[in-house]
User: Which sequence fits this backbone?
């Protein structure tokens, strides 16, 4: 399944965010969109590419955990 | 453009997903990313080993058309037409995926509204800004986008 992993923004400093991807914290660039702490995003190659609704993010995380 | 280059331009954006799902390791991902950034292409064998589900679908399409799955037209049609249908039809558990996650995985044709370094502003509601490393792209061009990347000028 080619489903993107959503991450939750923990903190933001300028255009860089610390994002929690299923327990793994990664630094993500926010140049492509406006997002705030607590938002769920999909990232690609270090850039946040889309904000996703929290309920859909949680649902997808459940699906992916089941999958892996 | 060679067929493996065309395939790689469309499929590279999926490499992040494969890494997140542990279907490829970090070393493979880094190799792919480096090649992509340098505008280079892995060989066919490496691509087939890495993007297994894309090739599963490509092979079934090519077989029906009695063509090679490395035929450039087969690959182009796959990414421009059939790829989104596979998502809509719920192939490989897509059926269970929430709407915004399905939308971001699809390939779209969009117009370029603005260009700033490696970022394009495009007329897409799903990803209004995308990354690009296209050689020649101008405002008003039509480009295809996939998972936050501009892939090809059409």
Assistant:
């Amino acid at each position: 399944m080619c489903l993107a992993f959503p991450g939750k923004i923990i903190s933001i400093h300028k255009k860089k965010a610390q994002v929690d991807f299923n327990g793994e914290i990664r630094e993500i660039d926010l140049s492509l969109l406006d997002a705030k702490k607590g938002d769920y995003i999909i990232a690609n190659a270090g850039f946040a590419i889309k904000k996703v609704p929290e309920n859909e993010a949680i649902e997808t995380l459940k699906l992916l955990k089941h999958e892996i | 453009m060679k067929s493996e280059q065309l395939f790689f331009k469309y499929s590279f954006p999926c490499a992040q997903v494969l890494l997140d799902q542990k279907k490829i390791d970090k070393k493979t991902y880094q190799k792919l990313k480096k090649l992509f950034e340098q505008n280079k292409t892995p060989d066919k064998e490496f691509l087939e080993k890495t993007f297994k589900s894309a090739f599963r679908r490509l092979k079934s399409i090519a077989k029906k058309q009695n063509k090679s799955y490395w035929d450039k037209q087969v690959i182009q049609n796959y990414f421009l037409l059939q790829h989104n249908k596979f998502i809509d039809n719920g192939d490989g558990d897509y059926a269970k995926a929430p709407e915004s996650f399905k939308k971001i995985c699809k390939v779209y044709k969009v117009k370029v509204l603005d260009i700033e370094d490696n970022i394009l502003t495009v007329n897409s509601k799903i990803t209004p800004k995308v990354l690009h490393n296209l050689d020649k792209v101008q405002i008003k061009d039509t480009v295809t986008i996939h998972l936050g990347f501009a892939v090809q000028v059409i």
